[in-house]
Write a structure and sequence with these properties.
By secondary structure, this protein is an alpha/beta fold. It has two domains: 7-349, Luciferase-like domain (TIM Barrel, Alpha-Beta Barrel); 359-395. Helices cover 49% and strands 15% of the residues. It has 16 helices and twelve strands. The protein has helices at residues 22-39, 60-70, 88-101, 116-121, 129-144, 184-192, 204-208, 210-223, 245-252, 256-266, 279-285, 294-308, 324-343, 347-358, 360-382, 389-395; strands at 7-12, 43-46, 75-82, 106-111, 149-152, 157-161, 174-179, 195-198, 233-237, 239-241, 290-292, 313-317. The strands form three sheets. Strands 1-2-3-4-7-8-9-12 form an eight-stranded parallel barrel, surrounded by seven helices. A two-stranded antiparallel sheet has the order 5-6. The termini are far apart. The model has no long low-confidence stretch (mean pLDDT 94).
């Protein structure tokens, strides 16, 4: 892996089926980030969507401001801000304010916008979204890095624009660009030396494109005099784990069907899941998702490591496949049993245990000798009358009288 400690987090779109109370659904999303903070997760990325009914968070900035008040350590990113929907100065200024409010815990994730229905409502041609993302990102990067920007576009204008506050984070907040299969995100990340968010890392196309997309990012960085860091490369994929595989399958019977319906019938990102087979079997067989145990999660991350050549953070694509208490349990099991495997948390413990085990005969001999010497001194000073015969026998100082 890149470095000795893989980071963990979640990519929270979120996905809430229509039969739930939306107010309570949003509250649970906030509670999830609080739970992650207590468990030691490193980061949470919050989506921006405006249609289709499942992905309820319209403003990741508002969500992040609320979550920041309820948490202490976890870093919070926009996952992602759809750049064609925002004037670059306004978005940069809001993120700069959040950088101060959160004391440097905020990150900006950038993308073109995932739902064509969002763009349609705003009169934005889908064909222009990626070009507009590139154009806006070029300006935002300069703004958050303290430059004064003048730029005239067919959809926005900047006149000697600059942020009125210096950033809390220096030289600026961390930024990352979303990538699926196409080279758009990787090229943009390399052009500016930003992080990369591989959102579909476990889909067939996304998985196969991991190595090539990183190569594209590196090439783009070289061409623009920048560098990219694998530690800032985040891979996203869905998981639900439980104590046993059978329990995990029973858990996801609660909500997996609703999630699959959204992706196969509504969202413009269809999943290649065989409708004739068991959906859990199909998700596992294609490598798209883990429904199993911590060992299965470990195997999936190791598979991604091998395919990619190394990355900095694994983000679970958050979902609501299970009841709330079982979802919390899945996140807990990840923290308890999967994190240590990739963070070296127990390396020193294992070395210490092995050293104590291998030297046990010598340590035990010294312990027995030390105790024996103290018992002998006691006998010499006071006699053996007040010492239990079993202790004397263990020390080899006396034998119990024959009965």
């Amino acid at each position: 892996m890149s470095g000795s400690r893989l980071r963990f987090g979640a990519f929270i779109a979120p996905f809430h089926p229509l039969h739930e109370n939306p107010t309570l659904a949003l509250e649970r999303d906030l509670e999830l980030v609080q739970w992650m903070d207590r468990l030691g997760y490193d980061e949470a990325w919050i989506g921006e969507h405006h249609s289709a009914g499942y992905e309820l968070i319209a403003s990741p900035e508002l969500f992040i401001a609320t979550a920041a008040e309820r948490t202490r350590h976890i870093r919070l990113g926009t996952g992602v801000s759809s750049l064609p929907y925002h004037h670059p100065l306004m978005l940069a200024d809001r993120m700069n304010q959040l950088d101060h409010i959160t004391r440097g815990r905020v990150m900006l994730g950038a993308g073109p916008g995932a739902l064509p229905s969002d763009a349609f409502m705003m009169g934005i041609p889908v064909a222009t979204q990626r070009d507009r993302m590139d154009e806006a990102l070029d300006c935002i990067v300069r703004l958050v890095r303290g430059e004064t920007v003048t730029h005239k576009s067919d959809w926005f204008e900047l006149r000697e624009a600059r942020l009125q506050m210096s950033p809390y984070s220096r030289p600026s907040i961390e930024m990352a660009v979303a990538s699926q299969v196409s080279p758009t995100g990787a090229t943009a990340a390399g052009r500016h030396g930003l992080g990369l968010l591989s959102i579909g890392a476990t889909s067939a196309g996304g998985f196969n494109a991991l190595a090539s997309n990183w190569a594209i990012a590196e090439q783009s960085a070289r061409e623009n005099g920048k560098t990219v860091d694998r530690a800032k490369w985040r891979l996203v994929g869905p998981m639900h784990i439980a104590e046993t595989r059978e329990q995990a399958r029973a858990d996801v019977a609660f909500g997996l069907k609703d999630w699959l319906y959204y992706f196969t019938e509504v969202a413009a990102l269809p999943l290649a899941v065989d409708g004739e087979s068991d959906p859990v079997d199909a998700l596992i067989a294609t490598g798209l998702a883990v429904v199993g145990t911590p060992d299965d999660a470990i195997a999936q991350i190791a598979r991604l490591e091998q395919q990619s050549g190394g990355f900095g953070a694994y983000l679970m694509l958050d979902h609501n496949w299970s009841e709330w208490d079982r979802k919390r349990k899945s996140y807990e099991l990840m923290a308890r049993y999967v994190f240590p495997r990739f963070q070296g948390s127990n390396d020193n413990r294992e070395a210490s245990l092995a050293w104590a085990r291998d030297n046990r005969p010598a340590f035990l001999g010294e312990q027995v000798a030390a105790v024996g010497a103290r018992v002998a001194r006691h006998i010499e000073a006071r006699g053996a009358g007040d010492i239990a015969p079993e202790i004397l026998e263990a020390m080899g100082l006396n034998k119990p009288a024959a009965g």
